[in-house]
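Hi there, hope your week has been kind to you so far. Thanks so much in advance, here it is:
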Amino acid sequence: MGCHRHYRTGYDSRDRFGDCGRPWKPLELLAMILGFIVFWPIGLAIVLFKVWQRKFGYEGDLFAFAQERAADVQARWKEATGEARAAGGWRGPGFMRSSGNVAFDDWRESELARLEEERRKLAEAEREFTEHIEELRRARDREEFESFMRARRDRGQPQG
């Protein structure tokens, strides 16, 4: 999808900025603007990518380029670590893989289930405590407000 020469005028299809019909996509513009806002070198890198894309005629957008580079890095990592391709890809963190010993794997699964139950109980206790503290704050606020209203009412009444 290169630039085409117009058959009547002899001019090629580039606009005055040299773009061959690959304008900035909205997500690329957003990424560039956010890049400049968050950390200016990120925005600059996106602008430089677009210049490179225009110069070398790369057909994909910024996100396709990032996906391709990530796939390259993942393939090189698998090569470097000797991970077998027949293993079916990434198998999760080490503690989730089978150790090869069924008894140990069963024990590990039961311990993980027990720990998850403890985590759930702790989260429930934390929620209950937060509700209790909130109720105490409401009661204290109610008492302070009622005290204020009593004092205000007492100031408004004439003294004996």
In short: Confidence is low (pLDDT under 50) at residues 15-19. The chain has two domains: 1-84, 99-160. The longest helix spans residues 102-156. The helical segments are 26-38, 40-56, 62-81, 102-156.
